[in-house]
Amino acid sequence: MPTNTAANAPEYKTFENKNISEKGIIIGDWKITTRKDRIFNSEEIDKTLDEIKIPQLPEMFFGYNHITIENTTTGSKWTCNSIDAIRQVQINLKENENWIKVAVADKWNASRNKEEEEKKKIQRPYDWTFSTDIRGRIENGEAVVTKEQIDMRKLMRRDPILFFDQVILFEDELADNGIATLDAKIRVMPTGAFVLLRFFLRIENVLFRVNETRIYLEFDKGYMLSEYLSREQPFDDFKKVYYFLL
């Protein structure tokens, strides 16, 4: 476990465990871990489907991947992973429930024949776009509402990057009708750490959707700040902007 120093940075240690595809950094009272492993096999997929009660998982489901931030003194922890993300996908949708998603599904099914449409109505009583508003899970701590915001000026400073990683949690091409991806990026600076957790959805000729969770930790404070943002735009509106820019 190498020990490193950087200008204006407390002593820190990076680590890596290739046996379980984990690596990370320990700095002060904080331990940050990322894992980038293989996709689930059929047995693991079946077990997850049975546990979560969802008809289908994304094509590329990295069920072991995660980013975890832990305070080694208090034991408090924040983590984001693929399983928790899928738990946030809506299932058992009823007719006319969540009209945006229903409208998308109808338009998607319109490209299939009638028999296939009826089949999908039975087999897909869930949000088939895998849209998730995952914000991470807290252990041994609590979330409270605050007016304090992430100071973006601090994030724009050119501080040394002590550790960086990007973790893909899942990806699906939605039967060639677009793409749905969930990934997380983390960078660690001498004074803190920043996580960007992003779900991106593109349905061809229908819409774009982005759900983002931003986590900011300053090492000299005993808490993390979390901000969530969701944006959605019809596909045609995006094309108009794009053509205008051209």
TrEMBL record:
Signal peptide positions (record): none
InterPro entries to which the protein is assigned, alphabetical: Phosphatase_reg/MetRdx (IPR051330), TIP41-like (IPR007303)
Record GO biological process: negative regulation of TORC1 signaling; TOR signaling
Any single GO CC term annotated in Swiss-Prot or TrEMBL for this entry: cytosol
One Pfam family in the UniProt entry: TIP41
Family that this chain belongs to: Belongs to the TIP41 family.
PANTHER family, alphabetized: GAF/PUTATIVE CYTOSKELETAL PROTEIN (PTHR21021), TIP41-LIKE PROTEIN (PTHR21021:SF16)
Protein name (database record): TIP41-domain-containing protein
